[in-house]
Amino acid sequence: FDKLRINHYFIKSYEEFLQKRERGRADFNVIRPMQDFYDNDRNEEKDDPIMDKYIPVIYKNMKERYNRKEKKLSSNPLNNLVDNRQNTANPDN
User: ∠ CA(73), CA(76), CA(78), 5° rounding?
Assistant: First the structure.
């Protein structure tokens, strides 16, 4: 891959926010207010076409790993996912 993309999420879950809040901030000796959670707890689904081109490769690698481990191609639940995503996610193929 010629580019690297890192997605950073401020909030993962309520429980993890409470742990983060308890640790305090690294730059200030202040406890984060609960409003930080409510302002940043955003769980909208996002259609991310930039990532779609990687889905077939990921499924292919998952399928190969599964097949190496289990040696049972016919029982692999990823077979249909790989074929379907390759046809829809990457129109260049």
Answer: 125
Contacts of 53 (CB under 8 A, 6+ apart): 89, 90
Q: What is the pLDDT of residues 34-87, one digit of tens each?
A: 999 999 887 776 667 777 888 888 889 988 888 877 665 555 566 656 555 444
Give 89's Cβ-side CA count (13 Å radius): 19
CB atoms within 10 A of CB 82: 19
* Cα distance between residue 9 and residue 18, in whole Å: 15
pLDDT at position 26 is 83
Rounded to whole angstroms, how far apart are CA atoms 31 and 9? 19
Residue 27: both structure tokens together:
């730059």
> Which tokens belong to 17?
């926010």
